[in-house]
Specification:
CATH class of the largest domain: Alpha Beta
CATH topology of the largest domain: Rossmann fold
CATH superfamily of the largest domain: ANL, N-terminal domain
Largest sheet: 6 strands, antiparallel
Number of domains: 3
Number of strands: 29
Distance between the termini: 37 Å
Low-confidence stretches: none
Shape: globular
Structural class: alpha/beta
Length: 566
């Protein structure tokens, strides 16, 4: 029989390992526990409900559900039936609801979904999505009440998931991944972190389940092992980041991943009084990926939480992308970050040359089992120390983009769209190729400019976008900066910080209200889109969500459901 996610779920249920399953925490740290056997039973019932709703084997099912047991019902129930789940992000920024509805409807149409699953809370604002796509809505709360169905005999080459790429420089692309690819990536991750003889791995995550780091990086390894995973809804982490560290301490977690901004956010926002009794000594793998990793963030987090047992060797930079399912390279466990200072002028010329006073870049480690990475310039492989386009080959690459003619793989290799270099055998990500800014013939990397501004008083950390604008006089640097408050001379202070760091004089510094910069569903900045919106006069903060705004949004949604059987 082919190995699939469904077979892994039935295996985990049959093994019924004591203490293995998924725990959900709320804002008050109350827990809801589901063992793998119960998750499997609920999946069989959900499959029955979906079948009654008209879903058939081989079809695609979209789902917009927050982190909760209902997400597991929808995801595993869809797989159990033999259909393919397509997780979409639920509406979290109500101030940009019109934008969300347009994007979500488009995603559903691209993948050809035949149903949309949402919980009662999310359903209230999805009426216009249903009206635009004409797909039936299935309530997530009804799933686990259906009649149990036997698991469909899915094959390893069938699609196990369609996930959308982050879309930092282009519109998100629907990445089709087979069960074989998903399990291959899961196994590569688990090879990297084998269970110890005395302490098995346990995980904690607040990452959204529609994102590959949350789903493939957390749920699948816990299922595969089978092991224990504690989940915190992402909106609760943002509201109270101490929940993350408190959960790691309480449940003695060894693994917890997060993007770079989360480590900075926790360092800045968590109060000392919230850490009473917190012991982070069990946390041996603090995986850091999904966005540029900065030395300042690593050092700040490590210093702040060292007194609570966090070890410098625990911080583990990683690299991956949705087209490879998730993970491609990991730093060696137990070593800590490897940081190399590189000459800024040499980097601008495409050479990775160490220099004591250069820009600090963080290694993202070595390829996982089965993966090969290659740096190319003009489609030709280059020696270590040269910056070029990063190509990846491995066992978990996508089958194709759904609904698109382009072929993502050439001779088994994927062009990641990233610029990178190999140094002393390890991979360093320099930036997105399409984001590179060229000023007077020299390359400048947005992240280097953006981090120069982060330390300026009044600037929102991680809320700066540097982009090149081609004018009749050549390309000039434009920097968009979200600020906490209007401070006299702030724009010039930011410009001076940029000149001191990079030697580039910004052509324009634009100060913005919080929330103005466009982001992907996973929170990454969309730099080119920011420039486009600025030129179109629509680079604006989200609408204020007052009672009248909310009432109007709910009324429009209700009209979308008018006359439809739900």
């Amino acid at each position: 029989m082919s190995d699939t996610l469904v077979r892994r779920l039935t295996r985990a249920a049959d093994l019924n390992v004591e203490g293995a399953g998924i725990r959900f925490l709320d804002l008050k740290e109350n827990e809801t526990w589901l063992g793998w056997s119960e998750i499997a039973t609920r999946a069989a019932r959900a499959a029955g409900t979906l079948r009654e709703a008209g879903v058939r084997e081989g079809q695609r099912v979209a789902m917009a559900i927050p982190t909760s047991p209902l997400f597991l019902d929808a995801f595993f129930g869809t797989l159990w039936l033999g259909a393919t789940p397509v997780p979409l992000y639920p509406p979290v920024r109500l101030g940009r609801l019109d934008e969300y509805i347009a994007k979500t409807a488009r995603m559903i149409q691209i993948v050809g979904a035949t149903a949309l699953i949402a919980d009662k809370r999310t359903r209230r604002v999805l009426g216009q999505v249903v009206a635009r796509t004409d797909v039936p809505m299935v309530l997530a709360e009804d799933l686990a009440s259906g009649a149990e169905r036997p698991a469909h005999m899915t094959l390893s080459e069938d699609y196990g998931l369609v996930q959308f790429s982050s879309g930092t420089t282009t519109d998100p692309k629907p990445v089709a991944l087979t069960h074989r690819a998903l399990l291959a990536n899961t196994e590569s991750i688990l090879d990297f972190m084998p269970d110890g003889a005395e302490i098995p791995h346990a995980g904690v995550s607040w990452l959204p389940l529609y994102h590959d780091m949350g789903l493939i990086g957390c749920i699948f390894p816990a299922l595969h092992r089978p092991g224990t995973l504690t989940l915190i809804p992402p909106e609760m982490f943002l509201l109270k980041p101490a929940l993350w560290l408190r959960a790691i301490s309480k449940y003695r977690a060894t693994v917890s991943p997060a993007p770079n901004f989360a480590y900075a956010y926790a360092t800045e926002r968590i109060l000392d009084k919230e850490l009473e009794g917190v012991d982070l000594s069990s946390w041996t793998l603090a995986l850091n990926g999904a966005e540029p990793i900065t030395e300042e963030t690593l050092a700040g987090f490590t210093k702040r939480f060292a007194t609570h047992g966090f070890a410098p060797t625990a911080m583990t930079p990683v690299y991956g992308l949705s087209e490879a399912a998730l993970a491609v390279t990991f730093s060696p466990p137990g070593r800590g970050p490897k940081i190399t200072a590189v000459s800024r002028s040499e980097l601008a010329a495409g050479r990775f040359t160490p220099a004591s006073d250069g820009v600090s870049l963080v290694s993202v480690g070595l390829p996982l089992r089965g993966f090969t990475v290659e740096i190319r310039v003009d489609d030709q492989p280059v020696e270590p120390g040269v910056v070029g386009h990063l190509f990846v080959q491995g066992p978990s690459l996508l089958s194709r983009y759904l609904g698109r003619d382009e072929q993502p793989l050439v001779d088994g290799w994927l062009d990641t769209g990233d610029l990178a270099a190999l140094h002393e055998g390890e991979l360093y990500i320099v930036g997105r190729a399409k984001d590179i800014i060229v000023i007077r013939g020299r390359n400048h990397h947005p992240a280097d400019i953006e981090t120069a501004v982060d330390g300026v008083e009044g600037v929102r950390t991680g809320c700066v976008a540097a982009v090149g604008d081609v004018t009749e006089h050549g390309e000039e640097l434009v920097v968009f900066i979200e600020v906490r408050e209007a401070i006299e001379g702030l724009a010039e202070a930011c410009a001076q910080a940029i000149r001191s760091r990079s030697g580039v004089n910004p052509g324009l510094v634009v100060l913005l209200e919080p929330g103005s910069l466009p982001r992907t569903s996973s929170g990454k900045l969309r730099r080119s889109e920011a420039l486009k919106r600025f030129k179109d006069g629509v680079l604006l903060p989200p609408s204020r969500v007052g009672p009248l705004y909310l009432a109007g949004a709910l009324a429009k949604s209700a009209l979308g459901y008018w006359g439809r059987k739900l």
